[in-house]
Design goal:
Blueprint lengths: L1 H24 L3 H21 L5 H23 L6 H20 L1
Helix pairs in contact: 1-2, 1-3, 3-4
């Protein structure tokens, strides 16, 4: 169950970053509320995941999902550049997180 918590934590981290962009574009109670809920859920789920998963592995995977997910979200929702080089580096981020798990 810890891995499910960790993946969900990463997804909420990604949504939290998207909510930061939303707050920057339109400050409202709803956008700030979404920001608080997303990051709150992310930290709660990360805490639950770290009860069984090593800190270094959990943190690397959590940030990897959040980083790559936020970049993909930016490409889809905000028309950020879709250059192949960006995709290569996102794959490298996720590969590094998986590799860390593999060697631990």
């Amino acid at each position: 169950m810890s891995w499910v918590f960790l993946i969900l934590a990463g997804l909420f981290e990604m949504l939290g970053v998207g909510a930061i962009n939303l707050v920057n574009r339109k400050k409202s109670v709803q956008s700030v509320g979404l920001l608080v809920v997303c990051f709150g859920a992310s930290f709660l789920l990360l805490t639950l995941a770290m009860q069984e998963i090593d800190m270094s592995t959990a943190y690397a995977i959590w940030t990897g999902i959040g980083t790559a997910g936020a970049a993909i979200l930016g490409m889809i929702l905000y028309k950020e550049p879709r250059d192949w080089k960006r995709l290569v580096f996102m794959v490298m981020i996720l590969g590094a997180a998986v590799g860390l798990k593999g060697v631990s």
